[in-house]
Write a structure and sequence with these properties.
There is one protein chain. The chain has helices spanning 11-22, 56-62, 82-100, 121-133, 154-165, 174-177, 185-195, 216-226, 242-252, 257-266, 290-302, 347-354, 367-379, 452-461, 463-485, 494-501, and strands spanning 2-6, 26-31, 47-50, 68-71, 104-110, 140-145, 148-149, 168-172, 183-184, 203-207, 233-237, 335-343, 400-401, 404-410, 414-419, 425-436, 439-450. With 505 residues, the protein is α/β, with parallel strands linked by helices. The strands form four sheets. A seven-stranded parallel beta sheet has the order 3-2-1-4-5-6-10, sandwiched between helices. Strands 12-17-16-15-14-13 form a six-stranded antiparallel beta sheet. The chain is globular. The relative contact order is 0.10.
């Protein structure tokens, strides 16, 4: 079939596309920003079309010629009312699917009781989206899952950081009382790819889960066991609310408050597959156990084989947004710090060094200042520095790099990062490379478009710090690139390469 995938830039969608291709389907990826799919390994095998769930007309055009579509879109984790955004998107999708003549919609929702009064806002919204998608004439197959266990998933990363960082923790009472049926991401992908080919009724709901029904404390203990850690001490107390727990999760894990809060709110609901709706009644498949799923996810993390991550779907403004190059576009003011240096190294080594910035390597100058800025950002509700990088060497548009987002990545010529920390304005950090007879000219530009007086005060108060950091940064990047060029056959160890980037002053 020709299958449209809405959410191909996200965690599940980015992994589903190659599964559909392997099954022999033609795949149409629909995204607001097509550039974010430019560097995917399967990009040349799919048709990428522009479409936005907030715009029914664009969806109808993008879905033209498709037989079926996967709806893997949600607004949780973004600023504003995520339930309202998801409601609008589902309504537009229902109308667009009918107008485009689709024969099937497959939607991945959340487990939980159908009694809305008992559900968290997140799960209630997930169920509402399923109902709205089915309000049109196109048959909808809704798969409902609980916690997804896979490298890079939001639930797995929250679990991983909590258990690895805290040998003992005080938790809400429901951590031991609520029942959950986690499922491996590989099993989710299997079910999604299988159900699209099964004839559908008007609105079918199938529930999917692994073989283990556990409490969240059981899940923490299972992670500790699989990771070779000592059993964690979990102390449930009745006074710890979801709001307080969300702030704690925000401080200890990479998840921002906007994402942590709805996830934590949902932990009060039992999310267990019911016999009447179990996918086992329709498909014969043995899902992985919890220990098998955790072990597989941990192995992928250790091997740096994280093809998609929860941060993929948390991009701020689109990469199509222009960088402010002149005062007219920027509303009158663009403040900048611009530097350049000639590097005596091949352009490939210079670009590799620049595109390896952040994460474990750090930011080459004033690393403790970057860490302090990240901690402050977390305290005021921002993303902080704990997101790190998906891969220490590879970058693609849409990737997170600590509290930046890759906006443009043109190998050997340009890397532009957009800041996603809390700021009174918009900020970018950019490196341009050009070859000359003397070597590689490396241009570094930090640009800031301030909002109001506060934005200007913010920039000017930090000019001494920025001057010190950015001056040292470009010098150290150049030195690291020249050192890299001397490594025979790139034989230097990762630890050795990382050490060059760290601030040891």
């Amino acid at each position: 079939m020709r299958i449209g995938v809405l959410g191909a830039t996200g965690y599940v969608g980015g992994r589903l596309v190659p599964c559909l291709l392997e099954a022999g389907h033609e795949v149409v990826c629909i995204s607001r920003n097509r550039q974010r799919l430019a560097n995917r390994s399967w990009r040349q095998d799919v048709d990428v079309r522009a479409g936005d769930v907030a715009d029914a007309a664009s969806l109808e055009a993008a879905l033209g010629g498709c037989d079926a579509a996967f709806y893997l879109v949600h607004a949780m984790g973004k600023a504003g009312d995520f339930a309202h955004s998801d409601r609008v998107g589902a309504q537009n999708m229902a109308h667009a699917a009918e107008a485009a003549g689709l024969r099937r919609i497959v939607y991945l929702g959340g487990l939980g009781s159908d009694t809305f009064a008992e559900l968290s806002p997140h799960l209630e919204s997930r169920h509402e989206v399923g109902r709205l998608l089915a309000s049109g004439s196109v048959p909808v197959t809704e798969l409902r899952a609980a916690v997804l266990i896979g490298s890079g998933s939001a639930s797995f990363e929250m679990l991983r950081h909590l258990v690895e960082v805290l040998p003992a923790m005080v938790c809400p009472r429901w951590v031991t009382a609520t029942r959950c049926q986690p499922i491996a991401i590989d099993d989710v992908l299997h079910y999604l790819a299988e159900v699209v080919g099964i004839p559908a009724a008007a609105h079918e709901i199938w529930e999917i889960g692994g073989p283990d029904v556990v409490s969240y404390r059981d899940m923490m203990n299972a992670y500790a066991r699989c990771a070779g850690l000592r059993r964690r001490l979990v102390m449930p107390v009745p006074v710890l609310t979801a709001r307080l727990s969300s702030h704690w999760v925000k401080l200890v894990t990479p998840l921002p408050y906007e994402l942590a809060r709805p996830l934590v709110d949902s932990l009060v609901n039992d999310v267990v597959v019911s016999e009447a709706r179990s996918i086992d009644r329709r498909l014969d498949h043995r899902p992985l156990s919890l220990d098998e799923a955790l072990g597989r996810a941990l192995q992928h993390v250790q091997d740096l084989d994280i093809t998609t991550s929860w941060i993929d779907s948390a991009a701020g403004r689109t990469a199509a947004s222009p960088m402010p190059q002149d005062p007219t576009w920027a509303g009158g003011t663009v403040l900048s710090d611009e530097r350049e240096v000639t590097v005596n190294a091949p352009v490939a080594d210079v670009f590799a060094t620049v595109s390896g910035i952040g994460g474990e390597r750090g930011w080459y100058a004033g690393q403790w200042l970057w860490q302090a800025r990240g901690a402050l950002d977390k305290l005021v509700g921002g993303v902080g520095m704990r997101r790190g990088r998906r891969h220490p060497d590879q970058l693609q548009v849409g990737d997170a790099v600590d509290f930046f987002r890759v906006e443009v990545c043109e190998p050997l010529s340009l890397l532009r990062l957009r800041a996603e920390m809390r700021l009174p304005g918009d900020a970018w950090l950019e490196w341009q490379l050009s070859e000359s007879t003397e070597g590689v000219l490396l241009r570094q530009r930090a640009r800031f478009h301030p909002r109001g007086v506060l934005g200007r005060l913010y920039w000017w108060s930090l000019v001494p710090v920025h001057t010190m950091i950015f001056r040292e940064m470009i010098v150290r990047l150049a030195s690291a690139a020249e050192a890299r060029a001397t490594w025979p056959d790139q034989g230097q160890s990762d630890q050795g390469r990382n050490a060059i980037g760290r601030d040891t002053s």
